[in-house]
Prior knowledge:
The structure holds 2 protein chains of 2 kinds.
Chain A: H1 23-45, H2 47-71, H3 83-91, H4 96-111, H5 119-133, H6 147-158, E1 168-170, E2 173-176, H7 188-191, H8 201-206, H9 218-230, H10 236-260, H11 268-277, H12 281-288, H13 299-319, H14 326-340, H15 352-376
Antiparallel strand pairs in A: 1-2
Chain B: E1 20-22, E2 28-32, E3 40-43, E4 50-51, E5 56-61, E6 66-70, E7 75-84, E8 90-98, H1 113-117, H2 121-130, H3 144-147, E9 155-159, H4 169-176, H5 178-192, E10 196-202, H6 206-215, E11 224-229, H7 238-246, E12 261-265, H8 266-278, E13 284-290, E14 298-303, H9 308-311, E15 325-329, E16 336-337, E17 351-356, H10 370-374, H11 381-390, H12 393-398, H13 409-413, H14 420-433
Parallel strand pairs in B: 1-14, 9-10, 9-12, 10-11, 13-17
Antiparallel strand pairs in B: 2-8, 3-5, 4-7, 5-6, 7-8, 13-14, 15-16, 15-17
Amino acid sequence: MSEENTMRLLQEPSPHVRRKDSATRMMLDVLLALLPLLIFSFIIYRLDALKVFGIAVPAMMIAEWVFVMIKGRMPYDGEKHSFKERFLHALRLYRPVNAVAPAVSAIIFGMCLPPTTSWWGVLVGALAGIIFGKLLFGGLGQNIFNPAAVGMILTRLSFSNTMSYPAITWGGETIVDVVTGGTILSSTTTGGYSALMDVSLLDLFLGRTQGAMGEVCKVLILVGLLYLLIRQAIDWRVTFTYIGAFTALIAIAGIAIAGGGIIEDFDIWHFIGVEFLAGGMLFGATFMLTDPVTMPATKPGRYIYALSAASLTVLIRLFAAAPEGVGYSILLANLITPVLDHHKVASSRWTWKKGLTIGLILLADILFIVIGIIFGGKVK
Amino acid sequence: MIAKARHIELPNVLLAHQELEEAPLPKYCYLAGTNGRCASYGLSVKEGDHVRVGERLGLRKGPFFEQPIVSTCSGTYLGIEKHLHHTGKECEFLKIENDFKDEPDPSVKERTEEELSALTKEDVLAIMRDMALVGLGGSSFPSYVKLQGDHEIHTIVINGVECEPSLASDHRLMLEHPREIIEGLRLLMRATGATEGKICAKWIYKDLAECWSSALAGEEGSGISFAPVWNFYPQGWEVACIKTATGIDIPSGHLPAEFGILEYNGATIYSLYLAAKKRMPLLSRYVQIHGDGVNEQKFLKARIGTPLRDLLPLAGGYRDSGKKKRIIMGGPMMGNTVQGDDVILTPTVTSILVMDEEVWTADSCVRCGSCVYSCPTHLMPVLIAQAVKSGNKERVKALHPERCVECGLCAYSCTSRINVTEYVRRAKRIARLS
Lengths: 380, 434
């Protein structure tokens, strides 16, 4: 044969095909799912939205880029290399995913903030989120905590005095006046659920209310969720377990309130609806809890993880002195991920221990909720 | 995409059912002396001897078995040459100059029906051993080993699934030789006392279902039935095939025989029929030469012992695309690359995939979990890969990498294009050594 031994043959381990798919594509899908919310916030909040995203996105992307350049720096080999050579050597590690991942984190982080957050609040939160939430652990894929959640908690705790919720106008009509104190959920810290009894569920659903930029318009979140589910960019198990467990536990709380006669003229359906639609529950379930890096890798682990997050959200919402439980509950649930992925704990199939864990978590939740409501006597 | 991978999409390897072509007999025929399992051999022929089809030329020595070397052509034995085995190893081959007469050895005599029906389990075992029958599904493990042991067998499963994407050799064999396979199966059932024989093929192959329903038309009451199975990868894996066909789940580390089941590839049963009925070795196999690296994809009936270099011109040679080529012996998921095209066809070779180079740059693992969802043995490849990187042997062993069947689904489904399978292979070595 003419080509004898002139062919250069390649040796590689099997398999020799790969699925048409990439992590970058998954993150671009998340960006695309966030797009309607992004447009919504630009329309409603205009320059405020520009400020938040205009600071958060470059801050996180630059931090990641600097990190990659440090990580990929040329080792000392006794020779002198030009700056260009060293720069290109470090740059070879910078892949598309290193650009998309921080952008996704930054937009999710921005979505969790009220539009009036001061620019230094956004900057500090974004940098702290990506550095302490991700880069210190070793960058993409190594982090324990969701960087957006870390940044959001930090900004909300440290700079809350600079936040106020602006008046919202829809087509020239003022929907909500400036209220000191923040979202509708924060009014529950003082007045309890009674303060929300006349809130319109439709307004909550459409986003005609105050709150963090991305969290108010539930319709658009659901559109994004649908897109992500169709594209299989998130694990439906986590989202649905979280939403389902949250609703079920809130319903139990509603039954306890109604049964205990704690609030007069109590409408349980309205209660469930308000708790479901107010705050960042849907947004967290769609975009933050589903970050694959910070959730367990196995099926049973993911159910336990989502259930723990839902329990914590409900308990914080009902009893804690904070209006919102989503951010905290996601961070706390992230903490149990390494445990669920420990080689002696993890299993890809259901075992009786995993089932027992789920049962115990549910039992503890129900006990806490019922005892807390009946004997505590008040729902905040 | 966080999802279980069950179907393999092939980007540019096309293949459907092409016309079968008979490849010309090779000028020189090569028979493996050593092979992937056997490291040494002894010969009973000298250089210059005349050999005939079906003649025993020597004995291959494996780790715990011996295997005769059976000639698949007639001609003059010329000596030993080194060529590549399909496993990628360089092995010693017996070179035979073909005289194109296909003169049978005197030992090649047909058995009569009475003799066939009198065969006991020990006889079948001896036939398998003496004719060097191996598992033709790809393992090339000696078939008789499965028959050893005192387990009571109730079902024999014939695996014609061939779940690797784009392979069609077993499909063709099941289509062309249903009678022979039924005869071989009946022989085996009689010898083992099994009451049920299940012939498995993918349900999407309507032509197979038709062919077999007519072939089995007079077989009611014999216990032999056609069992369509699912069309997913790896349905052809022994355990998956048995599970779909019989509903029995065989746990890792156990033999199907412990559950009363024997599983053989369709081609193995066909070669058993040839060995028992005609005392002939399997002479030829259906071989695909396909992929985007050759000019014309071909489906050939080729004599065992033919060098690949004789077959490549039939497929139009390499397609000149300016890219490096990979020659993959087997399917795209489990086949292995060889370092040169100096490969000899052995009985297990049914597919030669020539593909252009494709580069996948690995990103960081985002722990999406697709590999965990996809793994047919319920392992956690992402955790195994992490454990291998950490170098912690305890961690590696606790994750049971030895259960891996190297189907390749974890690497296939990886969203970050990491070759997870390679990490699991390393984990298997670590677990074995420590």
